[in-house]
Specification:
14 strands, binds pyridoxal-5'-phosphate, 13 helices, alpha/beta, single chain, four-stranded mixed β-sheet, globular
């Protein structure tokens, strides 16, 4: 049996007719760039997040970049984030001309460790970006409290956390702005590239709306130097369809995670993901930790099961950030996790047979390596 890491074809099958109709409506109305389908999605997504506004943009990287620009972040500034994230979080900071400053992650939630945050703040710090990694929010109360004391805005990188909750509040609605990616494989994925910023601030909303459209509030009257970061009409229409299915899809992910949790609990050699008491985790990824990760990854692939690594190199050790001169050992938790993380297949349409097969093969591999170790020890 071949088990993919993610099966978008299966994911779209149950909503295929609705998607076809939505796309046809966009073609019939020629509303391809921005327009009414994007505007409707913006309203519905803001309501879903429990926020006043959402602004559709080209992708999650644009969302982070424009949120930072709208907050006035620029050359000479520092923005604090984590080294265990997708590269885009740091790239957005760099593309404002600012410097990413890293704070290590918590050993259990894999999100920003609030105990390490305050000592990273300097007079140059202008914002903090916690990342809600793998579908679980960072400890927002602790982070927001420190940020408030220093007068700093918090931008949530919620690109992996559509529908996740922190103490009953939706990811993205807690900080000054929340940034989302709708890359196809996300919990809420478009049929191409798309993203959004969610905010309760009218001022930030207006600024981001201008920045995404060449700095204009009125056609051909440019107040700011902006960019083209509009969302496509087809993505807006498709996302409206898919948003209606998001709660159900997240529930399915959570049920699969419970199954993995129960079935893998007895394996001492493997650290399972933990859901913090403050969190409603939506398992964008189900990530376990183990020694000998690369061998297990390959052996699972040999048995037809596609696993992933998110992420093999923490951002501070990426070639692109060599100039920041962070050596190995600078952020030990992130570095250890990068060596041990293994993402098991996770998508709403995984069947019971597929889940059982993943568990069976994974367990037998871990037990086999235990026996080899015992023989050679
Ligand atoms: C944590 C995180 N931040 C930012 C991004 C960037 O989003 P996009 O790929 O839509 O630009 C992603 C997407 O992979 C992400 O996972």
């Amino acid at each position: 049996m071949q088990i993919p890491f993610l099966d978008l074809r299966a994911h779209h099958a149950s909503m295929r007719d609705e998607l076809d109709t939505a796309i046809r409506e966009v073609i019939d109305s020629s509303a391809f760039a921005g327009g009414p389908f994007v505007a409707k999605f913006e309203q519905e997504f803001a309501a879903f997040c429990g926020a006043a506004n959402s602004i559709g943009v080209g992708n999650g990287t644009d969302a982070l970049w424009l949120a930072l620009l709208a907050l006035g972040i620029g050359a000479g500034d520092e923005v604090i984030t984590v080294p265990m994230t997708f590269m885009a979080t740091a790239e957005a900071i760099s593309y404002c001309g600012a410097k990413p400053v890293f704070v290590d992650i918590d050993e259990c939630t894999y999100t920003m460790d609030p105990d390490l945050l305050e000592r990273a703040i300097t007079p140059k710090t202008k914002a903090i970006i916690p990342v809600h990694l793998f579908g679980q929010t960072a400890d927002m109360d602790a982070i927001v409290e420190i940020a408030k004391r220093h007068g700093l805005p918090v931008i949530e990188d919620a690109c992996q956390a559509h529908g996740a909750e922190y103490r009953g509040r939706k990811a993205g609605s807690i900080g000054a702005a929340g940034c989302f990616s709708f890359y196809p494989g996300k919990n809420l994925g478009a049929l191409g590239e798309a993203g959004a910023v969610v905010t309760n601030s009218e001022e930030l909303k207006n600024k981001i709306q201008m920045l995404r459209e060449h700095g204009q509030a009125k056609k051909y009257y440019h107040t700011l130097i902006g960019w083209n970061a509009r969302m496509d009409g087809i993505q807006g229409a498709a996302l409206r369809v898919k948003l209606k299915h998001l709660d159900r899809a997240n529930e399915a992910r959570r049920a699969h995670a419970r199954f993995y949790d129960q079935q893998l609990a007895e394996i001492e050699e493997v650290i399972l993901p933990t859901q913090a008491d403050y969190a409603r985790h939506v398992y964008h990824l189900y990530v376990v930790r183990l020694q000998d990760r690369d061998r297990v990854l390959q052996a699972m692939a040999d048995r037809g099961i596609a696993c992933g690594i998110h992420y093999p190199i923490p951002v501070h050790l990426q070639e692109a950030y060599r100039f920041l001169r962070h050596g190995k050992g600078s952020f030990p938790v992130a570095e250890r996790c990068a060596e041990e993380f293994l993402s098991l297949p996770m998508y709403p349409e995984l069947t019971t047979t597929q889940l059982e097969t993943v568990v069976h093969e994974f367990k037998s591999l871990i037990n086999a390596s235990k026996r080899t170790y015992e023989r050679t020890a």
